[in-house]
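REVIEWER CHECKLIST
Item 1: Sequence provided? yes
Item 2: Single chain? yes
Item 3: Sequence as submitted:
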Amino acid sequence: MQTERGWLIGPGDKALACDPHGRVTFDRTDLTDTDLLEATPQSDGRCVITAAHGLILGADATKYSPVGVCGQYYGTTNAPGNYELWSFGQWPSGTVQAVVEYIGQGADHGRHWQAAGLTWVKQQ
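Item 4: Structure as written out by the authors:
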């Protein structure tokens, strides 16, 4: 993957929006430049996703997240760490999914697992 611009689509077919304070919502039905994201590949194959305000997006679906699964996404300037590195994969249908994988970070049962996946829609 090369650096791409696009949007992350989540619950209810709504686009992820990140405000300047790092609060993430899924309340946008239109894909606008306001919510445009940039995915930049790192040397390990994962990507850093940056929002318009320069915040890096992350997902914490571990036991350390105080807000639970629905609030697991956030924006931060303190990154990238393991929770801010996204993996991309493509389903046979052509849908591209972006996830944060937990490999040894909070995996209480010795299994690898992931945050809830979001759909990546590449800007044309």
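Item 5: Key structural point noted by reviewer: The first strand starts at residue 4 and ends at 9.
Item 6: Recommendation: ____
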